[in-house]
Amino acid sequence: MALTLSMSAFQAASSAYIFFRSKRYWVFCSPGTGLKAAPPAARAGTAKARSKHRTAHRIGFLPTMKRRSLSRLPARVPSESPWPNGARYCKINLSAKTAPREDRSMAKERDEKAITTRSQDYSQWYQDVVLRAEMADYSPVKGCMVIRPNGYALWENMQKALDGMFKQTGHVNAYFPLFIPMSFLSKEAEHVEGFAKECAVVTHHRLGAVEGGGVGPAPDSVLEEPLIVRPTSETVIYAMYSKWIKSYRDLPLLLNQWANVVRWEMRTRLFLRTTEFLWQEGHTAHAAHEESWGEVTKILEIYRRFAEEWMAVPVLTGVKTDAEKFAGALKTTCIEAMMQDGKALQAGTSHDLGQNFAKAFDVKFQDETGGWQYCWQTSWGVSTRLIGALIMVHSDDQGLVIPPRLAATHAVIVPIYRDEAGKAKVLEVARALKERLSASGLGIVLDDRDTVSPGFKYNEWELRGVPVRLEIGPRDVEQGVCVAVPRVPTRELREGEKRQKETLALDGAPEHLKALLDDLQKALYARALQFREEHSYTIDDYAQFQADIEKGGFFWAHWCGSGACEAKIKDETKATIRCVPFEAKKEPGACMVCGAPSEQRVVFARAY
RNA sequence: CGGGGCGUGGCGCAGUCUGGUAGCGCACUUGCUUUGGGAGCAAGGAGUCGGAGGUUCAAAUCCUCUCGCCCCGACCA
Length: 608
Hints:
The protein is of the alpha+beta class. The chain has 17 helices and 31 strands. 34% of the residues lie in helices and 24% in strands. The strands form 8 sheets. It has an 11-stranded mixed β-sheet, with helices on both faces. The longest helix is centred in the C-terminal third of the chain and has 26 residues, at 509-534. The radius of gyration is 33 Å and the shape is globular.
């Protein structure tokens, strides 16, 4: 494309030439001649042409034309200057992006309409989905995010479902303060160790004017004891428990709180790890260890059911190793899910705290015999991270996929029409349909914008993850039907079928739609489970493991139980033991690393 | 805290090497034609080029200093 011509040739020929410079083309027009590109010439004159070109700058004015005006250039340049300032040449800026038409429209399709695909760049895909579906956005504060209405609606539905399950099992909600006296954190040794590095500390209680303008902490407002912003609430809550619990009759105490917490993480990712996040933390106190352990497993079962039945995310349940457990707990149990890149995500934890915190905070009760005993405690939580899990398990290259049971909007109705008369007729039917579906308890949106085309709406609602789209056009109105398209197929596609399209009779539409939503919920779970199974391997050879871990997935392997072998594996492969699964069958074997005997396989994976 | 990258209309970027009227695509506004898979044409609005100094007739571009963000590592749900 390098078209270079000397200035003298330009002057002599008095016709239009194109100079190549960087990514720009300079078009010089002379009076009375047509525009034409000069033939590719030798590059020899390049340096000279450059200096001439700079001269040209000084000759006068270079009006810049917008690319779209290019087509309006007269075939023959009139002898009068076309430009207001009398210049007889113009500059056209043709950057890399303003290439020939076909290329541009393809680039447009690729760069601006579609999201990054999972195979191109998984974490970019995840970001694209979250931002484009308007689930969340970055905030002015580094590491923090704004949860937008689309994301928050999902969280509200999760809260509703979980809260119901907690209440059903005898838990009640309360709220404890955001600030914790700094000294509280140091009462449980392991706990400090675990959280000290990521605590935000409040040291002042007032701002004052600062020299040179602005505001800063007022020097005379230093707090006597600094406060920390809760990274979790064990300490404040148990300080209160020690006040409230006196007798075995006060037990069990089963509290939960919905709250925000702050952990000053070094690296953050939307929903998966942010400096501030929303969660639920349950804190219970019991009279005996077997009772508190019963609570731990009961809650874990609630988490498992919620993940599988509501989120349609299959999870493994199990116990964390000592290296991975909660700081201050005797034992940590967890649910672990597999993302589409084969990495594991801890989706919820339920801890057996034993009497560790009871001793640190003096949480004691008198038993039937009048003797004093320390309580047995548990704590458990799930966070907005679940939203990240949900996205990474179900969504695809079209965008978000929300399982029907958690969706705020179950279906969107897209009306299709050609003219005003048709529009009126179709909209009338669409509105009636919306009323009937909404009345049956479903979240329905009628997208009657006429500023965008139906195709645009299809793509937009798919991006937002709405489970079902209902299309109503003139043909459908005549036949008393609508076309339902599930976000993800609920059955095998037929020959020549690009997308699953179901024709639903408008009569009984609520029932038909509900059935389709049920099918979709099941299909999503089945698909996720199948993915996990296809990416789970049993493995005995460590060398093989080191190679295979690169491709992701869950690896069921024997492990002797020593922290040394666990650390070695983490060092060498970045894989951790996600859990010692409950559902694993007992099976004697030899540790993958050291060969020492092992009773069952544990699950290794790289994790978020 | 180490290594890398980037700050230019709302978003994504070109232009910086070689100083010379701030551009492109998307989005937005208006009008007409469109509408069963991301519509077309036309006309418009919108940027003190992250900030502060300096060099120059002239700085997005060169020099100095700053601030911020993103990515990759060490920590974590």
